[in-house]
Amino acid sequence: MKKIQALTDPEEIKASVTTFRKGDVSLETWKSLTHGAYSHNSLLSFQNDWETFLGFCREHKVSPLPAAVTAVRRFVEQTAKTRKAASIKRYIITISMIHRVHAHPDPTKHREVRFTLNKLYREKADDAGQATAFHLEHLNALHEKLSDSDRLKDIRDLLIWTLCFEGMLKRSELSALSYDAPQKTDNGFVLHVGEHVISLSEQAGDLIERWLLVSGVADGPLLRGINKHEQLGDTPMDHSSIYRVFRRAASELGEENAFTFSGQSPRVGASQDLSQAGLSIKEIQQQGRWKSPAMPAQYVGNKQARDEAMDKLKRKIELD
C-alpha cells in the first residue's frame, strides 16, 4: 500500500468526509485524494470497494466514516460468506486508507478486526487453488457496460461470459459449440451441450441472435478468434483465448489488481449463486453436469460433502 499524505485542514477534512459518506465519489476526487499515485483501474477498484462498504453501512444503519471496529468486523464476517480472501483483503486496504487519509483512527488495525481476518484467512486457505468466482453480479455489470457496443469483440465476449455462466460450461464445452448448438424454441433459446439441453435467458437469446447476425456465422464453430482488425477466424477458440477473454472481464470491472477470472470461474460462481438460492449439492451437480458432487461441494464451501464424495469416488475407482 502506497503512503498517501493525510489531509490536515479541518474544513477540507470535514467536506471530504461528507463526500465519502454520501458515496458515488468521482474518480477525479479519488485521484486528487491519492495525489495521482494510482492508475485508473486501481482507482476504479477503490471506488467499487468503498461503495460495497457504504452499502453494508447503509443496510445496517452505521457510520462508514469514521467506522466503528464492530461495524468493520461484521462487514468482514458478512462478505466472507460470498467473497474470497483476496477480495476481503482489498476491502480492508480501502477502508484503512480512507480512514488514515481523513485523519481518523484506523478501525482495521484493531485486534478484534485482525483476529477475525486471521481466522478468515485460515478458513479460506483451501480456496487458494480454486478459481476466482464469477458471479451473476459480475455478469450483470458487464452487460450494463458493454451491451450497447457494436464491436464484434464486445458482442462475442459478452456472449461467452453469458453462456459460460448460464450453462455452467467447461472450457472444452465452450470451444466445442457449433453454430447450431443454440436453438430457438417456442419458449426461447436453448443450448445443446452434448446430450444435454440447457434453457437460456431472454438476454442470452438476444445476444445469440445479435452475434449470428453481425458475425455471419452459418457453419462451423459458434465462437472464434477475432484479430486486431475485427476480422473473424475460422477455427474455434482455444483455452488460452478463453482465458484472455476472462482476464478481460476482470479488467472491465476494474478488478484486475484484486483477482483474475479464468474459464473455470463461471462454474464456481454459478455454483455458489445456486447454493445461495437454496439448491442442494445434488441439484447443482446435475445442473453443472458433474459426475460426482465433490467439486460443487468444494465450490460452495461444503467441505464435509466434498470429502465424503471424494472418498466414495476413490472407493469406486478401487473397485473398478
What keywords describe this structure?
320 residues; mainly alpha; DNA polymerase, domain 1; hpI Integrase, Chain A; three-stranded antiparallel sheet; globular; DNA recombination; Integrase_recombinase_N
Description:
Residues 304-320 have a biased composition (Basic and acidic residues). Residues 285-320 are annotated as: Disordered. Residues 21-103 form the Core-binding (CB) domain. It comes from Enterovibrio norvegicus. Residues 129-315 form the Tyr recombinase domain. The structure is a single chain. This protein is mainly alpha-helical. The chain folds into three domains: 10-129, Tyrosine recombinase, N-terminal domain (DNA polymerase, domain 1, Orthogonal Bundle); 136-265, hpI Integrase, Chain A (Orthogonal Bundle); 279-319, no CATH class. Helix content is 58%, strand content 7%. The chain is built from 15 helices and five strands. It has helices at residues 10-22, 27-33, 40-60, 69-79, 85-101, 111-123, 136-146, 152-167, 171-176, 202-215, 239-252, 265-276, 281-288, 294-299, 303-319; strands spanning 182-185, 188-193, 196-199, 224-226, 232-236. It has a three-stranded antiparallel beta sheet with strand order 1-2-3, covered by helices on one side. It has a two-stranded antiparallel ribbon with strand order 4-5. A hairpin with a 2-residue loop joins strand 1 and strand 2. Helix 3 packs across helix 5 (85-101) and helix 8 (152-167) crosses helix 12 (265-276). It is globular. The chain starts with 9 loop residues before the first helix and ends with a helix.
